Amino acid sequence: MDRTLGLTLAVYVAAALAEIAGCFAFWAWIRLDRTAWWTLPGVASLCLFAWLLTRADADLAGRAYAAYGGVYIAASLLWLWLVEGARPDRWDMAGALICLAGTALILAGPRGS
Which residue windows are transmembrane per the record (predicted)? Predict the structure, then answer.
């Protein structure tokens, strides 16, 4: 894996964690009856997520977002398992692998001129 691809994947992983944490803060407030104060770090985390996606090595925003989607899905399943304590089933894992294959195609596929 070349350095640029590795950095892009690291940005995507960090962005996924920031997005999931930010969204979970709102989930906790609304669905788990936590205090509205949970939204403050949630908003900060979502701002970090948006900023991180601008660091991805892509000429076009849509391509960067599309490639990020597969990483987000895999990270969401890790969150499900590690934070929420529900182990992903084989269908979750198969879906995540398909999405990550799509991410790889988008990031590493040859581009015509």
Answer: 7-30, 36-53, 65-82, 94-110
